Amino acid sequence: MISGKVFAEYEKNGFKINSFTTDDLIASFEAFISIGASEDTANKLLILAIRDAANQGGKSFKSIQKTVETWIAFDMTTVDQVADFVNKRDAGEEIKKPTWTTGKIPVPSEEEKAKAKEYLAEMIEQVIANPKDE
Fold first, then answer.
1. Would you give the DSSP letter of residue 60?
2. Distance in Å from the first CA to the final CA of the chain
3. Which of 5, 91, 100, 108 maximizes the CB count within 10 A of its CB?
C-alpha cells in the first residue's frame, strides 16, 4: 500500500495536490511494484522521485512521472541503483540509455483505487483524532 509519507513529501516539495494526485501517485507506486520492487522500496523510490523532480526544478506531477518512467526504463528496483544513477547524472557522467522502454505508467484498477482511498481516509481520521504538535 502506498505510504502517507509519499503524499506528505509531494506537498512538502511544493507540488500542488489536485483531483488527480492520488491516482497519479498510486499509478507511479504500482509501476515500481510491477517491475519487482517491494512495497517498502516502491514507497522509498517514489519519495526519491518526488525529491529528484523537485531538485531538477519540476513544478508538476509530469516531472515526477518523467523521473519514474526513466528509472523504470533503466529497471531500477532498489534505492542503491537510483542513488548510483542520480550521482552519475549529477556528476555529468554519460549514462547509456536502455534500448527498450516500458511505456506509460499503468493505471490502477478501480479496486486498487478504492483500497488506497479507504486507507488514506483511515489515516486522515487517525491524524485528526490524534494530532501531534510539530
1. S
2. 26
3. 108
Q: Which domain holds residue 77?
A: 4-129
Decide if 63 is inside a domain. Answer: yes
Backbone phi, then psi, for 131, in 5-degree steps? -65, 145
Angle between helices 39-55 and 21-34 (to 10 degrees): 120
Q: What is the pTM of this model?
A: 0.69
CA distance 29 to 89: 23
Q: Return the CATH number at 21.
A: 1.10.10.630
User: 109-132 pLDDT, tens per residue?
Assistant: 888 888 888 888 888 888 888 766
**Within a domain: residue 122?**
yes
- For residue 134, being part of any structural domain is answered with no
